[in-house]
UniProtKB/TrEMBL annotation:
<dbReference type="InterPro" id="IPR025944">
    <property type="entry name" value="Sigma_54_int_dom_CS"/>
</dbReference>
<dbReference type="InterPro" id="IPR025662">
    <property type="entry name" value="Sigma_54_int_dom_ATP-bd_1"/>
</dbReference>
<dbReference type="Pfam" id="PF25601">
    <property type="entry name" value="AAA_lid_14"/>
</dbReference>
<dbReference type="InterPro" id="IPR029016">
    <property type="entry name" value="GAF-like_dom_sf"/>
</dbReference>
<keyword id="KW-0804">Transcription</keyword>
<keyword id="KW-0805">Transcription regulation</keyword>
<protein>
    <submittedName>
        <fullName>Sigma-54-dependent Fis family transcriptional regulator</fullName>
    </submittedName>
</protein>
<keyword id="KW-0067">ATP-binding</keyword>
<dbReference type="Pfam" id="PF00158">
    <property type="entry name" value="Sigma54_activat"/>
</dbReference>
<dbReference type="Pfam" id="PF02954">
    <property type="entry name" value="HTH_8"/>
</dbReference>
<dbReference type="InterPro" id="IPR002078">
    <property type="entry name" value="Sigma_54_int"/>
</dbReference>
<keyword id="KW-0238">DNA-binding</keyword>
<dbReference type="InterPro" id="IPR025943">
    <property type="entry name" value="Sigma_54_int_dom_ATP-bd_2"/>
</dbReference>
<dbReference type="InterPro" id="IPR002197">
    <property type="entry name" value="HTH_Fis"/>
</dbReference>
<dbReference type="InterPro" id="IPR003593">
    <property type="entry name" value="AAA+_ATPase"/>
</dbReference>
<dbReference type="InterPro" id="IPR058031">
    <property type="entry name" value="AAA_lid_NorR"/>
</dbReference>
<keyword id="KW-0547">Nucleotide-binding</keyword>
Length: 635
């Protein structure tokens, strides 16, 4: 009854404000309510639950913001760690209000999804009415929409604080929102939250600018010399001719103020000369480098206002610095295959960051080998590489194996407990193989570890901080598993910062190169593959991929004495099975073995099996058995 009363009162208040009555609400809230009715034709009486876009649309929204998501990842993780214990959810939306990244308490997934504090939720004003994200998008300003500030009474329990993230060209790129299902009644209780979210967006914009203009001059500005080199207030990029080509939002406001223009019109600033705003020429920027003490690096605007400045010179091209397109470890995973070369180049680029990667490929394609190569090419190569096969650990043990257990957590447990595999990966790389087979209950715990960067061993009361890079692999379609409910959607996006798809062995052109690499690892003696045996290896479909190739070469080495693998040294299915059904009956195997023993003499084979020659021919035709090579010495 009390809830119904509050809803009724809220609807009456919205209607009275629209009719022109006085209100204690902030102007930004009152004007947003008016837009909801006049522009979006929303009805405060009609309460609507949060809208979550379809999976295919969400993927498109995420892909458009992929670069920013990667840039913002560290800042978002750190921010969520600050607010998680206070019941807040962190959301990153695009400029249309669609949530493309999300961090929240996994134990409250149902409640958060229902409230729209979830991945894929759309929070535009036209869809949801007055709300933190939607009103932030419209005004371009950081703000808080607290409880009954919301136009739709459905959202009145929420408190949402949002700040815009602007692209380097001054256009709105995204919105960062911190929301809570429950919060203290006074709106002032969210003041600190507003400071946190605006501080985080400023750092994200700074990182985006630094990443985008490495080859240009970057000038960072602060009103305090103590914070200039660690947390400047704004920054802008300047090309070799002294023109402004990029800026953070704070710099956009500063320059617009100096030039007496509207900050919402970035074109008035972009392309203008640096000297139009500051009393300095482009050739004087080196004087603002770190060669001088911070206190002496002063820069005056054309109006005489002083700022402390740090000018960062253009960096050499990363291509020039890195002569090899592919790192050493990754160059060892392929020969002359174009698909693998493209994969290795992409993996080299991605290995530099801590972005989580999803490795896709059929069973046996070498996903763990690729994961190790990425680890060895990364900044974490001096740390451990811990591989976990999620399908191989019994479900009854997987929790303690992954998370470890505290002293005395189990009867008979060793006195000092046991460090779990995740903790063992600290400062290194955690490789989760066959992650599609991980039980749902553990997916929730893993998600929490990835979001909060800390884990709680079984039986422990205090969490342990961890830092690692996540590489995951699967031969299954995770989007399909998400669709049928057997894999968490939020975990999927947490591990899928980028996807690397490994081609099947039958699709590769470097099978013989790969065979040579495997042989060199299996024996110290020089062993080669003959031309005829090589043709058989190249023509076989390899349903088991590299793992099957390795087993085949182990088999061949057992019979190869003179250092050259001939067709007769290969397993029967390799010699006679390409293009045939993979399952071979015992009767067919017997026929193949007898043909081999009789040097493919049909008469001798028929006598050995006690049948007519016509029977042998008929069975060979039925089973599509052909002789694909001539044994040495036989013509």
């Amino acid at each position: 009854m009390a809830v119904t009363m509050r809803v009724s009162e809220h609807i009456k208040e919205v209607q009275s404000v629209i009719e022109g009555s006085q209100t204690s609400r902030d102007d930004v809230i009152a004007t947003s309510w008016a837009r909801c009715i006049d522009d979006y034709h929303l009805d405060p009486v009609v309460m609507q639950e949060a809208y979550i876009v379809p999976h295919t649309q969400l993927k498109e929204h995420r892909e458009r913001l992929d670069k920013l998501i990667r840039t913002a990842k560290y800042g978002l993780d750190a921010l969520y760690h600050q607010v998680a214990d206070h019941g807040y959810v962190l959301m990153l939306t695009d400029a249309e209000g669609v949530t493309v990244d999300y961090q929240g308490d996994a134990s409250l997934t149902w409640e958060l999804k229902k409230a729209g504090l979830y991945l894929g939720a759309e929070w535009s004003e036209a869809r949801a009415g007055t709300c933190g994200v939607g009103s932030c998008i419209y005004t371009g300003e950081a703000l808080t929409v607290h409880q009954s500030d919301h136009f739709d009474a459905t959202h009145s329990p929420l408190s949402c604080t949002a700040a815009p993230i602007y692209d380097v060209d001054g256009t709105l790129a995204a919105v960062l929102d911190i929301s809570a299902l429950q919060s203290p009644h006074p709106k002032a209780s969210q003041a600190l939250t507003l400071q946190l979210v605006t501080s985080c967006t400023r750092r994200i914009e700074m990182a985006a600018l630094m990443n985008s203009f490495r080859k240009e001059w970057i000038v960072r500005l602060s009103q305090s010399p103590a914070f200039l080199d660690v947390d400047p207030e704004c920054a802008l990029a300047v090309d070799g001719e002294g023109r402004i080509i990029g800026m953070t939002h704070s710099a956009q406001r500063l320059l617009s103020g100096i030039g007496n223009s509207d900050w919402r019109n970035p074109d008035r600033v972009l392309g203008a000369r640096f000297s139009e705003f500051f009393n300095i020429d482009i050739n004087e920027l080196p004087a603002l480098s770190r060669a001088l003490p911070t206190e002496e690096r002063l820069l005056a605007t054309i109006h005489g206002d002083l700022w402390f400045a740090h000018a960062i010179a253009p960096q050499p091209s990363s291509v020039q610095r890195r002569k090899k397109v592919v790192s050493g470890s990754l160059s060892a995973i392929y020969g002359d295959d174009a698909k693998m070369a493209s994969l290795a180049t992409k993996a080299t680029t991605l290995s530099i960051s801590d972005l989580p990667l999803l490795l896709n490929g059929e069973t046996g394609t070498g996903k763990e080998y690729l994961a190790k190569a990425i680890h060895e090419s990364s900044s974490r190569k001096s740390g451990p590489f811990i591989a976990i096969n999620c399908a191989a650990i019994p479900e009854s043990l997987i929790e303690s194996e992954l998370f470890g257990y505290a002293d005395g957590a189990f009867t008979g447990a060793r006195s000092k407990g046991k460090k779990g595999l995740i903790e063992q990966a600290n400062n290194g790389t955690l490789f989760l193989d066959e992650i599609g087979d991980m039980p749902l209950s553990l997916q929730a715990r893993l998600l929490r570890v990835l979001a909060e960067r800390e884990l709680l061993p079984v039986g422990a009361t205090k969490a342990i901080p961890v830092s690692f890079r996540v590489l995951a692999a699967t031969h299954k379609s995770l989007p399909e598993l998400v669709k049928n409910g057997s894999f968490r959607e939020d975990l999927f996006y947490r591990i899928n910062g980028a996807t690397l798809t490994i081609p099947a062995l039958r699709e590769r052109s470097d099978i013989l190169w790969l065979a040579g690499q495997i042989l060199s690892g299996l024996t110290d003696k020089p062993v080669y593959v003959s031309k005829l045996a090589g043709e058989l290896l190249e023509n076989y479909p390899w349903p088991g991929n590299i793992r099957e190739l390795e087993n085949t070469l182990r088999f061949a080495l057992a019979f190869c004495i003179e250092g050259e693998i001939q067709p007769e040294h290969l397993p029967e299915e390799i010699k006679t099975g390409f293009g045939r059904p993979l399952c071979v009956s015992s009767a067919t195997q017997e026929l193949l073995a007898t043909l081999e023993a009789c040097n493919w003499n049909i008469s001798e084979t028929a006598r050995a099996l006690g049948v007519d020659r016509s029977t042998i021919h008929r069975r060979m035709k039925k089973e599509r058995i052909e002789r694909h090579y001539q044994p040495q010495g036989k013509r």
